[in-house]
């Protein structure tokens, strides 16, 4: 009986997760920047998103990103960010019917010095919150 209940629990959790995933639509990545930084401490306070050019410039300089700071139309786009100590990282975003954006960062488990980052821009249309947090130009 105990094994049956465990199996049933796993099936029900899988069903709920699958149902939630089906309610979300993937967002297209418009632009992407990848890199690494030897100073792991800088990743500790990494934002999940940037909604204005001032904060993007601040992040670019703090992480010493060698590429030119991109021109982003924040009226139409939002920047999403993920970091890892693993060697590889991918970032995807999904949007539910209520306008809540969820980030999905998938990283390898092999830890190395410093950190790796992925920064993407997505179309802002329909986004009201990011992981339940309201977005404003000050974020």
Describe the structure.
It is a single chain. With about 140 residues, this protein is of the alpha+beta class. It has 2 helices and 9 strands, in the order H-E-E-E-H-E-E-E-E-E-E. The chain has helices spanning about 1-20, 55-60, and strands at about 25, 30-35, 50, 75-85, 90-95, 100-105, 110-125, 130, 135. The protein has a 5-stranded mixed beta sheet, with no helix packed on it. A hairpin with a 4-residue loop joins strand 5 (about 90-95) and strand 6. The longest helix is centred in the N-terminal third of the chain and has 21 residues, at about 1-20. The radius of gyration is 18 Å and the shape is globular. It starts with a helix and ends in a 5-residue tail after the last strand. Residues about 1-20 have low confidence and may be disordered.
| Largest β-sheet summary | 5 strands, mixed
Major sheet: order of its strands? 1-5-6-8-9
User: Would you count the extended β strands for me?
Assistant: 9
Order of helices and strands: HEEEHEEEEEE
Poorly predicted ranges (pLDDT <50, ≥5 residues)? 1-19
Mean pLDDT: 86
Strand content: 35-45%
Radius of gyration: 18 Å
What is the compact description of this entry?
This protein has 139 residues and is α+β, with helices and mostly antiparallel strands. It has one domain (26-134). 22% of the residues lie in helices and 40% in strands.
Topology readout:
Layout: H1 2-22, E1 25-26, E2 29-37, E3 49-50, H2 53-62, E4 77-86, E5 89-95, E6 100-107, E7 111-123, E8 129-130, E9 133-134
């Amino acid at each position: 009986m105990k094994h049956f209940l465990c199996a049933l629990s796993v099936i029900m959790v899988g069903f709920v997760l699958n149902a939630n995933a089906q309610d979300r639509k993937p967002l297209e990545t418009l632009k992407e920047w990848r890199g690494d930084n030897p100073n792991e401490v800088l990743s500790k306070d990494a934002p999940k998103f940037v909604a204005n050019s001032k904060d993007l410039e601040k992040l670019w300089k703090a992480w010493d990103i060698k590429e030119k700071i991109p021109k982003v139309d924040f009226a139409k786009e939002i920047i999403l960010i993920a970091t890892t100590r693993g060697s590889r990282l991918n970032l995807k975003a999904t949007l539910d019917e209520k306008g809540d954006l969820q980030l999905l960062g998938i990283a390898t488990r092999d830890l190395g010095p410093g950190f790796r980052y992925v920064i993407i821009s997505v179309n802002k249309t329909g986004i009201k919150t990011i992981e339940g947090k309201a977005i404003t130009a000050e974020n």
